[in-house]
Specification:
Elements lengths: L3 H9 L3 H23 L2 H17 L7 H14 L6
Helix pairs in contact: 1-2, 2-3, 2-4, 3-4
Length: 84
Amino acid sequence: MRTDTELFKQIELKNKQALEALYDRYEKSLYLLLTRMLNDEKRVQLTLRQIFQDVWTSPNQYPSIHGYLIKAVKQVRSQREPIH
């Protein structure tokens, strides 16, 4: 099993399989957390999609998936509209 750091390095090289592996690793736990926070399925799905889109487009912005989640949580708290 590859580490998150290894996956992020592969995502920097635009390896879609690395993104899929990261998604498979974290999708369920992120979904559950966002569901508790938002209580709105559409916003949960949009936020989840945005997290992984940000990972794909800017994989070196944060050293781990947790940084992207913290960013998303701050955005969710600061706005009432869904993240696009």
